[in-house]
Amino acid sequence: MKPIRFDGQVAIVTGAGAGLGRSHALELARRGAKVVVNDLGGAVDGTGGSISAAQAVADEIIAAGGEAMAHGANVTSPEDVADMVETARQRWGKIDILINNAGILRDKSFSKMSLEDFRTVVEVHLMGSVTCTKAVWEGMKEAGYGRIVMTSSSSGIYGNFGQSNYGAAKMALVGLMNVLHLEGRKYNIRVNTLSPTAYTRMTEGLIPPEAGQLMTPESVTAGLIALVGEDAPERTILAAGAGGYAAAKIYETPGVYLPPEQQTGEHVAAALARITDPAGQEEYEEGGRQTLKFLGHAAAHFGIK
Ligand code: NAD
Predict the structure, then answer these.
(1) Which atom of ligand 1 is nearest to the CA of 200?
(2) Which positions of the chain have pLDDT values less than 50?
(3) Catalytic residue among 158, 166, 199, 245
(4) Which atom from ligand 1 is nearest to the alpha carbon of 197?
(5) Under CATH, domain 10-248 is a member of which superfamily?
(6) Which tens digits make up the pLDDT trace of 134-180?
(7) pTM of the predicted model as reported, rounded to 2 decimal places
(8) Which residues neighbour 245 within 8 Å (Cβ) at sequence distance 6 or greater?
């Protein structure tokens, strides 16, 4: 097996003062990367903040013989993020890897959720990832190399009660990956998504501590490493937890075509079983495939070549 190494490479890991981000930062450094350990150092709901969490992880990396710097940027602040990226560039020259991992929770049923709690969660997960990615994107394009990971969640991909804000933000990151994958691939920028499950402070009330012994951040980090090496895949949603690794995928069914006189709500409703039948479903590599499918049908209908 070819070892995955990051010697000479520079990685930014957001939210790396604890949990999954800390584990990602330690492993990237152990495999040779110089690591920017970013963390705002707040509580699970995003309140408060201190550099001490990020500093402790950077110190741990340095004590083990690696290279690291701590940065307390709030990922939602373009000024903070610009300062973090500029500081890293001045010290190490470039950014090869960005792990968008920082996140918070403000769970409530949709009825009880304030718009402020919705916006704050979308701001940290979606706009935080956008802000950090934007700050490294041009540099990666110029260098002709980049590896970027979004951190999604089963809560977004499939839904979880009480997490409308978090689920919406986490699925938005899949959309962001899909587009950046298309825009980045000719510059050798590969964008992937991790959907983790691990025992951290974020899940300690949900996962029993005994199960936590297997559901380690380190088991998820193994998946992360596979997403950011030189031979990384592209546009993959890797689900990882407890040593299990799987891919989450979105498929489109062949569906049905109804003649003009049957293009009514009632006829579509009557055809739903056929429309949702998974037989022959396909994974599309870009949105244009869906447009072309329908356009192709319309063109064939009128005999247009
Ligand atoms: P965690 O709370 O231990 O770590 C998140 C870190 O992000 C914290 O250290 C926090 O200070 C930092 N952070 C929060 N807001 C920030 C901001 N604005 N700027 C900079 N740093 C900020 O939780 P975790 O379980 O390690 O979660 C890591 C990521 O994985 C999150 O995006 C989370 O949504 C996602 N995730 C985790 C699980 C799981 O099972 N633990 C499941 C699905 C998704």
Answers:
(1) 25
(2) none
(3) 166
(4) 40
(5) NAD(P)-binding Rossmann-like Domain (3.40.50.720)
(6) 999 999 999 999 999 999 999 999 999 999 999 999 999 999 999 99
(7) 0.98
(8) 222, 223, 238, 239
